[in-house]
Amino acid sequence: MPRLQKNDNFIDKTFTILADIVLKILPTSKEEKEAFYYYRDGMSAQSEGEYAEALENYYEALQLEEDPYDRSYILYNIALIYGSNGEHTKALEYYHQALELNNNLPQALNNIAVIYHYQGIKAIDGKKIKMSKKMFTKAAQYWKQAITLAPNNYIEAQNWLKTTGREYNLEEQL
């Protein structure tokens, strides 16, 4: 089952060795171990731009993984692939599924906001002003949630919120 890595580097090799050792030591079920191997192989394929292979591995991992927290990261990575391939509707579906299992994923909230912001820009290009305002409002809502979870991140989003009059105020969120 282990994937042959084309671009093995020291960090990838070290991670793989350590992960294999930890899996042998930890009292995990056969399914949990298998799910992790698929997840690891998916991450490796994804980092090499082999998105179809990565998706196959992630879907296999989802079939085996039962832990909601771990499933959230599998779903998040699936969303990343769909988003990078321009399949924004599918990406949004998977980001939302990930957030249902783990509401502490500011990176998913940020990526949702990025998609809505992009859709807002596309709406402006198409002279659909009402739609653009709606998409920008959604982007602002998700960026505010992401910033609440990670206040020192997403500086560009914070600046966008300020410059567009949707200023983010941490005290208001608390």
TrEMBL record:
Transmembrane segments: none annotated. InterPro entries: PSI_Ycf3_assembly, TPR-like_helical_dom_sf, TPR_rpt, Ycf3/AcsC/BcsC/TPR_MFPF. The keyword Thylakoid applies. GO terms for cellular component: chloroplast thylakoid membrane. Seems to be required for the assembly of the photosystem I complex. Belongs to the Ycf3 family. This is Photosystem I assembly protein Ycf3.
